[in-house]
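User: structure tokens for Helix-turn-helix transcriptional regulator, please.
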Amino acid sequence: MESGTPVIGGGLCWARDTEGRARVTPRGEQGQALRADAARNRARVLRVAREQLAAGDDSLQLNAIARLAGVGVGTVYRHFPNRHALWEALSTERFQGLVDEAQAAAADEDALAGLHRLLRFALLEASDDSGFAAVLESASDADTQTAELKAELDGAVGRLLDRARRDGAIRRDVEADDVRRLLCGIEHAIRSGDSDPKRAEVYLGVLIEGLRPPR
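Assistant: Done. Predicted tokens:
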């Protein structure tokens, strides 16, 4: 038998070491090795996807990414069952940055100023990355981490809105989810035009004015 050839028996995975001695590997350790291999494949897929985006290709065709990453198509689909799931994974860092910004805004002494700063930051992030915008506005999430980030975001925005309402700075019938959807609407408006930054400021001003209590 060649070195390293596994022999299954007795609830353990047996293998030979480089000197021909029998080595016992508990099935738990074998599972860890498989998980490590899966993690490397996932990281390889994400690296290739980021390279595609950096090259200006945002199609994220899973079959093409599998070929470029040197892994099987089935491997890609096990990690990312669809294109949206891949976008979620690629957007995690950007989403965390938005959550951090929302939490900082919620702690701002001036709730309205914090809200304005957060809306501007979120709009710039969504306008800069159409995939992130799609993840932000999606009603369903492929990964639990995305759902958790959305819950953190809505929680921070909710606290911020509560303070702004108590100060009489915004209307009382707007919730965190409403703000997120309205912001995504502005992002669509910008993207459907010429992406002029000046229009972004105009639209943001309209949103901020609309959040004020009715006169």
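User: Anything notable?

Assistant: The two ends are 85 Å apart (CA to CA).
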